[in-house]
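Justification of resources, computational component.

The compute hours requested in this renewal are based largely on the per-chain cost of generating structure records like the one below. Each record pairs the submitted sequence with a full structure-token output. That output is archived, and it is also reused by downstream analysis tasks.
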Amino acid sequence: MLLSRECLFSRTGLATLLTLGFAGTVGSALGFEHIGGYIPCALCLLQRIPFYIAVPVGILTIAASRFGAPAWASRGLFAILGLIMLVSAGLGVYHAGVEWQFWAGPAGCSTSVNAVTMNANDLLGDLNRLKPPSCSEASLRVLGLSFAGWNVIASLILAAIAFFGARKTA
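The structure output for this chain reads:
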């Protein structure tokens, strides 16, 4: 067996699992964008920011756990990661609510389209033809959930793991 239960549930193991979860989640979003061709809306881009923050904090948590930082330091870093993921879940709930028309989204909820040509002759035509995605329309639903809904689930799972790590005494 590659990983023992003690190794996985150690602070270093939990910090590694979390950091891989953060990187995997935001990496999936980037993959859908750059490989799958899904252009993110402004709220989609906003939901990535907690993960961009969590990855380096996660690496710092791995280092603190691995190299014997005081217990309060690694526990505090786990707590910070848990709070970051709760913010991420809140952003996802807000975006999913906008998609389900529970409340209105931001007034300027669109993003720039990367497919605009660099040819000046075609620029005006492209601006009239290409429309940025709307925050109120899910571009894809899997098992009834949009990307925002899946972000809520992933964020809550990662938050639970982070708070479990923060409560760990050894």
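The helical segments are 5-8, 11-34, 42-66, 71-99, 120-129, 147-167. Residues 11-105+136-167 form a domain with the Substrate Binding Domain Of Dnak; Chain:A; Domain 2 fold (CATH 1.20.1270).
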